[in-house]
């Protein structure tokens, strides 16, 4: 048998194995890329407030920038938890984010972060 034919056969086998391995490596990442995530943010202001509207605009931008993989749901004051409990609810994992006034957050944050 010609040595060139034998070498070419092994090259084809090697290429086929490399192609199969690269596809198997890429498959999980494409499946993961289709997974969507959800984030709930509650504001301490009513749904008609300007800061709430800015939060809704943020949610729309995140949806576009993540190509629909991250869905941000925005809730007004008291929709899930009472407004004074927003920071505690984020800490406990009930909410993924909260919008409160800075002076109120500063008083509440002292319970979690040593000053």
How would you characterize the overall build of this protein?
- With 115 residues, the chain is of the alpha/beta class.
- The chain folds into 2 domains: 1-33; 36-109.
- Helix content is 54%, strand content 14%.
- The protein has 4 helices and 3 strands, in the order H-E-H-E-H-E-H.
- The protein has helices at 3-33, 50-65, 86-92, 102-109, and strands at residues 37-43, 70-75, 97-99.
- A 3-stranded parallel beta sheet has the order 2-1-3.
- The radius of gyration is 26 Å and the shape is elongated.
Q: What's the arrangement of strands in the largest beta sheet?
A: 2-1-3
* Basic shape: elongated
Order of helices and strands: HEHEHEH
Strand content: 5-15%
Strands, total number: 3
Rg on CA atoms, Å: 26 Å
Low-confidence parts: none
Largest sheet: 3 strands, parallel
Portion of residues within helices: 40-55%
Structural class per helix/strand content?
Answer: alpha/beta
User: How confident is the prediction overall: mean pLDDT?
Assistant: 78
Task: Outline the secondary-structure elements.
Blueprint (H helix, E strand, L loop, with lengths): L2 H31 L3 E7 L6 H16 L4 E6 L10 H7 L4 E3 L2 H8 L6
Summarize the structure.
The chain is of the alpha/beta class and 115 residues long. The protein is built from 4 helices and 3 strands.
What are the salient characteristics of this protein?
4 helices, 3 strands, alpha/beta, 2 domains, three-stranded parallel β-sheet, 115 residues, elongated
């Amino acid at each position: 048998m010609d040595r060139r034919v034998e070498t070419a056969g092994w090259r084809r086998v090697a290429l086929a194995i490399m192609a199969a391995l690269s596809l198997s490596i890429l498959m999980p990442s494409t499946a993961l890329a289709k997974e969507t995530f959800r984030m709930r943010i509650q504001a301490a202001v009513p749904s008609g407030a300007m800061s709430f509207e800015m939060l809704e605009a943020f949610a729309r931008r995140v949806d576009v920038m993540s190509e629909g993989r991250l869905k941000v749901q925005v809730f007004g004051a008291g929709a899930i938890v009472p407004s004074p409990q927003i920071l505690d609810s984020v800490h406990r994992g009930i909410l993924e984010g909260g919008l409160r006034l800075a002076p109120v957050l500063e008083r509440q944050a002292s319970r979690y972060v040593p000053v």
